[in-house]
């Protein structure tokens, strides 16, 4: 898998692959969109460290800023597609979600948390497994206005893309080896996902007791 990804990072097709993966993983959370972003960013860092002599042309190196813009934009586009689907899906969408055990569990666990936390949890849930799917579909199903959901979707996309790109790029620069930087960065991405899942599932703190008069 990593050999295939390594060859793709030397081609402009990596941008299309990243965009497609990030858009679609709102519907298929098993797609490794974060792994793709990290691998591309790590390739950019490794190519930069190799120097201009070893790099035949800029088209063979993922541009780090372009990668960030594409990942962020694709994240927002995927969110809005799921939002529209949730807004218009009705009973058919409910049945489709019910057939997915993972989405059903995530919806049950995240639903109450999102209701408690509002927009900030949209950003946190972007890192949680299936959290993006539940947030985007749920926002549409509950008829949230676009103006209420879109700014948080943009912020969530920027945070997730920035974190993933920074992991791959700076991890490879600091560790000095592309494969090691990629591996450590992927572990860090999954760790952030586990932390995000814990935060959105954590029960609300009990209100302070009012002292007796």
What does it look like?
- This protein has 213 residues and is mainly alpha-helical.
- The protein is built from 9 helices and no strands.
- Helix 4 crosses helix 8.
- 39% of the residues are buried.
Structural class: mainly alpha
Question: What's the helix count?
Answer: 9
Order of helices and strands: HHHHHHHHH
End-to-end C-alpha gap: 67 Å
Query: What is the oligomer described by this structure?
Result: single chain
Question: What is the C-alpha radius of gyration, as a whole number of Å?
Answer: 19 Å
Query: How many β-strand runs?
Result: 0
Based on CA inertia axes, which overall geometry fits?
Answer: elongated
Largest sheet: none
Short description:
The protein is an all-alpha fold and 213 residues long.
Write the layout of secondary structure elements.
Layout: H1 2-8, H2 13-24, H3 33-50, H4 64-98, H5 101-117, H6 120-125, H7 131-141, H8 146-175, H9 178-201
Helix pairs in contact: 2-3, 2-4, 3-8, 3-9, 4-7, 4-8, 5-7, 8-9
């Amino acid at each position: 898998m990593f050999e295939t990804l390594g060859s793709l990072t030397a081609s402009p097709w990596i941008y299309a692959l990243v965009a497609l993966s990030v858009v679609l993983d709102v519907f298929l959370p098993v797609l490794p969109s974060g792994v793709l972003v990290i691998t591309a960013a790590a390739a950019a860092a490794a190519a930069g460290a190799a120097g201009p002599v070893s790099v035949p042309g800029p088209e063979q190196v993922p541009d780090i800023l372009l990668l960030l813009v594409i990942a962020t934009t694709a994240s927002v586009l995927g969110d809005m597609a799921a939002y529209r689907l949730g807004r218009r899906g009705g009973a058919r969408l409910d049945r489709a979600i019910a057939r997915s055990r993972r989405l059903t569990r995530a919806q049950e666990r995240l639903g109450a948390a999102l209701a408690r936390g509002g927009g900030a949890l949209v950003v946190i849930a972007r890192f949680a497994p299936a959290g993006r799917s539940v947030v985007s579909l749920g926002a549409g199903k509950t008829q949230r206005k676009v103006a209420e959901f879109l700014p948080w979707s943009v912020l969530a996309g920027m945070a997730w893309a920035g974190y993933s790109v920074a992991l791959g790029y700076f991890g490879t620069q600091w560790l000095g080896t592309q494969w090691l930087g990629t591996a450590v960065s992927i572990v860090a991405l999954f760790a952030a996902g586990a932390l995000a899942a814990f935060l959105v599932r954590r029960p609300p703190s009990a209100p302070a007791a009012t002292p007796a008069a």
